[in-house]
């Protein structure tokens, strides 16, 4: 294999966001664009002798082309072997598992998560380190720095690798192994959960409905729910991966998973319904006519973890991102375990899990996971719920309502304003920041502002400091509003407004979240002036 050195010039916009570099496919298709970023990753790493790279993606448009390029560049940059998922597929948690199980040096995951796919839509790439988790900020910052000065990249001339069948190809000592994308992950799930109890629960006539949203979890769901747990084929919908995700928006929430929501609230609603996203790391949990917020889901899994075989011995600690509700904090306090509050981004949980400080982590953005891998894990969350339903015999709704009776309810909602012009979004942030000194002590109806800040985090394991992680307006009564700009969008800006109020009042626990939060929403708009500064009267998505 002869290594070619190709002369290139930098692109200014290769700064990884909350989770890797996400751009329109057409941006990635520019000459040298993908190659520059991949070389910047490799140049940032000290690649040892015998290094193996894991590669896979969510199956979206441009996945296969990108994989061929990455294989050729891995060969040119000193890797001795690449492990690649069959058909180029690996869900994000499955990729994390492969890196850990086969102790590969790292992995490249191709995904823009829940963002739509196709020639006019989104693509993404991120690097995961040998612990199986997303590269921490010090590495992503270094990759960005390299991308700004890159002048050449290395690539070998190889024939295209056949990704359609499992097997090993060796070319001049460089090995390419196409692996079963599903089996290792399904085995891990079977070791962690009480499959026999879930099977009995299903056999007793309980009904499950799972929506893979035409994205990567389809083959995993067919193997785990269908083949290993015996769920009938009509329990599984949209389980064929298509390059444009069926033309949909595979974001498992009440807006974008509308078909599933209709079934879960319909006349013949199942006992349990769930969906996962483009790359399989997000989850949405629904009961019979009932929605579980991701923050409550995390708290409830933590509170009942001992019913799941993998956590029978208890949890070492829990962590949540700052905008996630404090519901899990209350569980941690009762269990007498530590609870950490991190910035948005799964990469911030890695050190805590590696240090053995936390077992479970979660985010309001429909992400929940544990230290079995170093990514959030959609199907794992679904299996947690199935295991809890099977172990308790309760319904989803009764489990949640009983939880609220014990711990109180953190009434919670996130309002997203998508596709806002960047200047307008920045103006909202600037307007709040300009009031940092004057807001504390101000009274808005029943709400008195206690403190306002821009969240910053010092990693307790390595001391790394992350600043500017979201504006927090904390009220004397314990309610709060958090406002930040998304780090995962590819068009304009997305303003996220997170609203939270705590109540132990039984009547308020029955209320719809939007109704219970109505006064807080008004106060939030008064302080941020979001409607005036953006012209938006309503959010694009409410979760
Ligand atoms: C990514 C990150 C998550 C984060 C989410 C939302 O998820 O991995 O940690 O919570 O984005 O981030 P933002 O609010 O900045 O858009 P995913 O599923 O898109 O990879």
TrEMBL record:
Gene3D superfamilies from the UniProt entry: Alpha-D-Glucose-1,6-Bisphosphate, subunit A, domain 3, Alpha-D-phosphohexomutase, C-terminal domain
Any one annotated GO CC term: cytosol
NCBIfam families from the UniProt entry: PRK07564.1-1
Cofactor list: Mg(2+)
Root EC class: isomerase
InterPro entries associated with the record: A-D-PHexomutase_a/b/a-I (IPR005844), A-D-PHexomutase_a/b/a-I/II/III (IPR016055), A-D-PHexomutase_a/b/a-II (IPR005845), A-D-PHexomutase_a/b/a-III (IPR005846), A-D-PHexomutase_C_sf (IPR036900), A-D-PHexomutase_CS (IPR016066), Alpha-D-phosphohexomutase_SF (IPR005841), PGM (IPR045244)
Protein name per the record: phosphoglucomutase (alpha-D-glucose-1,6-bisphosphate-dependent)
EC number: 5.4.2.2
GO BP annotations listed: glucose metabolic process
Positions of the Alpha-D-phosphohexomutase alpha/beta/alpha domain: 14-153, 184-286, 295-407
Catalytic activity, reaction form: alpha-D-glucose 1-phosphate = alpha-D-glucose 6-phosphate
Family affiliation: Belongs to the phosphohexose mutase family.
């Amino acid at each position: 294999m002869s290594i070619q050195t190709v002369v290139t010039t930098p692109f200014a916009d290769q700064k990884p966001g909350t989770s890797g570099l996400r751009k329109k496919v057409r941006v990635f298709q520019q000459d040298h664009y993908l190659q520059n970023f991949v070389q910047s990753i490799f140049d940032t790493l000290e690649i040892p002798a015998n290094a193996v790279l894991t590669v896979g993606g969510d199956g979206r448009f441009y996945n296969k082309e990108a994989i061929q390029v990455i294989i050729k560049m891995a060969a040119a940059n000193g890797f001795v072997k690449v492990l690649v998922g069959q058909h180029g597929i690996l869900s994000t948690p499955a990729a994390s598992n492969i890196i850990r199980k086969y102790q590969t040096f790292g992995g490249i995951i191709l995904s823009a998560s829940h963002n739509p796919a196709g020639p006019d839509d989104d693509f993404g790439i991120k690097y995961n380190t040998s612990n199986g988790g997303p590269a921490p900020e010090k590495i992503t910052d270094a990759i960005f720095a390299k991308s700004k000065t890159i002048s050449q990249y290395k690539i070998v001339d190889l024939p295209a690798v056949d990704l359609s069948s499992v097997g090993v190809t060796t070319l001049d000592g460089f090995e390419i192994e196409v692996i079963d994308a599903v089996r290792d992950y399904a085995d891990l799930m079977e070791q962690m959960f009480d499959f026999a109890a879930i099977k009995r629960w299903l056999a007793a006539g309980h009904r499950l409905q799972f929506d893979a949203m035409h994205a990567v979890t389809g083959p995993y769901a067919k193997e785990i729910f269908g083949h290993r747990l015996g769920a009938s084929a009509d329990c599984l919908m949209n389980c064929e991966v298509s390059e444009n995700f069926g033309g949909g928006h595979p974001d498992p929430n009440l807006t974008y998973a509308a078909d599933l929501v209709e079934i879960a609230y319909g006349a013949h609603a199942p006992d349990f319904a769930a969906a996962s996203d483009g790359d399989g790391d997000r989850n949405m949990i629904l009961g019979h006519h009932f929605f579980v917020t991701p923050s409550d889901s995390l708290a409830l899994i933590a509170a009942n973890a001992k019913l799941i075989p993998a956590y029978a011995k208890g949890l070492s600690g829990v962590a949540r991102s700052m905008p996630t509700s404090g519901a899990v904090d209350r569980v941690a306090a009762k269990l007498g375990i530590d609870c950490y509050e991190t910035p948005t981004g799964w990469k911030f949980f890695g050190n805590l899990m590696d240090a053995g400080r936390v077992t479970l982590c979660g985010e309001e953005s429909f992400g929940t996971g544990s230290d079995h891998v170093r990514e959030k894990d959609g199907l794992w969350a679904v299996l947690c719920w199935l295991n809890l339903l099977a172990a308790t015999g309760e319904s989803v709704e009764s489990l949640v309502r009983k939880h609220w009776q014990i711990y109180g309810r953190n009434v919670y909602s996130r309002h997203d304003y998508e596709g806002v012009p960047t200047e307008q979004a920045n103006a909202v942030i600037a307007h709040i920041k300009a009031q940092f000194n004057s807001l504390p002590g101000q009274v808005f109806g029943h709400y008195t502002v206690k403190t306002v800040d821009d969240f910053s985090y010092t990693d307790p394991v390595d001391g790394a400091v992350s600043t500017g992680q979201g504006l927090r307006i904390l009220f004397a009564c314990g309610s709060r509003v958090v406002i930040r700009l998304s780090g995962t969008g590819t068009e304009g800006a997305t303003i996220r407004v997170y609203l939270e109020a705590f109540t132990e009042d039984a009547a308020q626990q029955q209320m719809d979240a939007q109704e219970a939060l109505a006064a807080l929403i008004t106060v939030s708009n008064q302080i941020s002036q979001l409607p005036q500064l953006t012209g938006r009267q309503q959010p694009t998505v409410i979760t």
